[in-house]
Amino acid sequence: MASQGTSEIDSDKPNETFNEAWERFKGLLRQCPHHGFFELHQLDTFYNALNPNDQDALDSAAGGNFLDKIPRECLSIIESKSKVRYLRSRVTDVRANTNAPPPSSSPSNSFKLQQIAASLEDKLDIRMNGFEKSLNDMKAFITPTAPIKAVEE
């Protein structure tokens, strides 16, 4: 079962979106709950099974080599990216169903704009997550453990 699962994880599905790949990967792990793979190995396997464009997108979102991050950060990046891609694909589906005109007259320009927007959204998500973490760290550092007495003049 383990070798079958590994080959299933490593197999590339044509036209599979990032979100679909992530959901399929999580489903395979759920099918074999006692797989014994550490998070780092799981992330390495998922990353290396992605197409080069998705690997580059993860590296970009990580601000460098994706696999140099700690597993918790990697999972946060993947989940964030998965949500963004899923929501973007839903918007595209709605546009296609309503026969709305594309935002640009040239399909190649439209694709480039979508890539730029996706990259910016991913970077914004990562920065916002980092900001939120920093803010929480500061709150934990600043929050007094004992009541503060008023200063008397």
UniProtKB/TrEMBL annotation:
The keyword Nucleotidyltransferase applies. This is Reverse transcriptase domain-containing protein. InterPro entries: Retrotrans_gag_dom. GO terms for molecular function: RNA-directed DNA polymerase activity. Residues 14-52 form the Retrotransposon gag domain. It holds the Pfam family Retrotrans_gag. Keywords: Nucleotidyltransferase, RNA-directed DNA polymerase, Transferase.
